Amino acid sequence: MSSKVAAAADHRMAQTPYHPKAKHTLLRIPSPYSPKTFIFYLLAVSLLALFVLFQAPSLPQSSSWSFVSFNNYTGELDSMAEKLRSSVTFLPLKDLRYADAALNGHTWFMSSLYDTHVEGEVQYQKFPSESSQGRILCIKGHDTHDGSWNYYALAWPGFLPRNATLLKGLTFVSYNHYNYDNIWHGLSSVVPFVAWHLKNGCKVRPARWVLYHWGELRTKMGVWLRTLMEATFDGHVYIEGFKDDGLDDGDGGIPVCFEEAVVMRHNEGGMSREKRMEVYDLMRCKARVYCNVSKTQERTERGSPVIGMTMFMRTGPRSFRNQSEVIDIFRKACAEVDGCRSSVAYSSNLTFCEQVKLMSSADVLVSPHGAQLTNMFLMDRNSSVMEFFPRGWLKLAGIGQYVYHWIASWSGMRHQGAWRDPTGTGDSGEQCQYREDDRRCMSVFKNARISHNATYFAEWARNVLTDQVNVRKLELAARSSSSTSRRHPPPGCTCTSTS
Hints:
Elements: H1 2-15, H2 35-55, H3 65-86, E1 91-92, E2 125-127, E3 136-140, E4 151-155, E5 165-176, H4 183-199, E6 208-213, E7 216-218, H5 223-232, E8 256-264, H6 273-290, E9 307-313, H7 323-335, E10 340-346, H8 352-360, E11 364-368, E12 384-389, H9 393-396, H10 403-410, E13 414-420, H11 442-445, H12 454-480
Parallel strand pairs: 5-6, 5-8, 9-10, 9-11, 11-12, 12-13
Antiparallel strand pairs: 1-4, 2-8, 3-4, 3-8, 6-7
Helix pairs in contact: 4-5, 4-6, 5-6, 6-8, 7-12
């Protein structure tokens, strides 16, 4: 009974933390000269002698105990490291199981991973991060024809796959379901990277870009898009092709891992209008600084704001059938408005900076539907856009015909409606042999030229110009009272241009 009580007391002592003001039962240590202590030491020495007797033959005669222990420990670490390397599993960049819903949810690009997304913000993946458990992104295979032959994996930084190369710095990995040559589709793919850059205070610039289309590697951007990114990120844009520094063994089998990577695969999806406008504000300002373009709001002698009307024309598909007459209609309408100045340009023969300068002087943009309309975000906020379509687009073109309505809203412009040609024929004058709502007619009307209605165009132009003058007057009044409602970008993202 006494032994049980003593055991319980010992247990309570072990569970009770020491405190200097508390009462504690002292543990009595037996005398080293007592019989009990002598027997304990004798047993301990005997057990140690037996251990040495039976283990000694298996130990290296020249090794110390510490050296044996260190060797065993190192061997276990090497074995664990090899297991971590071997556990890296490469999966196809393009998961064909999701081919029918390639852009939905986690998409067919890196399908096993999910994005980080806060409502209203850009959707992205970041490596390493808490969600990746500290692992970094690795890619193997550089096929330009079939994305299912390119692979991705996550690996621990200290335990990369065999023969892997680690690329230092920040890498932007872009997935685009379309391409990087068309300025609209290309812009949609890079906007989320600029949004992430803004979100993180513009502190780190990318060392390289890795571009994918349907999981297939792409090694170039269109000149317009590349120049815009050079302006936005204040430096050279390097597109990784995995051909330098031994990154390609001829079979595309050498894994490449990235010290830090950000992956985008949803373009602007999920971003609020406010966040998109912040991105377009930054790109507009950066482009003007890059091209040394400045703008001040001019006034007429009567004090009215000067309004620029720019006719941004196309040649060939989706051009006006009678360009000279259309230009004359808008010039006359402009001449009727105090302070209106008209200009004409063609999208096919302008450099990036020439387009920046052209858009910076425009308050009203007149242009057929086409990629050149992407430049509208380079105008000042609250500028107006007038868009023109060939016959048949309303019924047959699908949701894609509204992309310039969207970019107008996202960049702070005012889309003033669209003219849809009711009488036009195909580019070569051919009629569609099917019913007008038959999708086969789209092949006839897609690149058709656009007819005009002089009366309608003149009245439309007068209304838009009058409205634009009123908008600029209100802005001038607001500036004079130093009132503004725009959010300021993070400190590291400031951009100053005279506008």
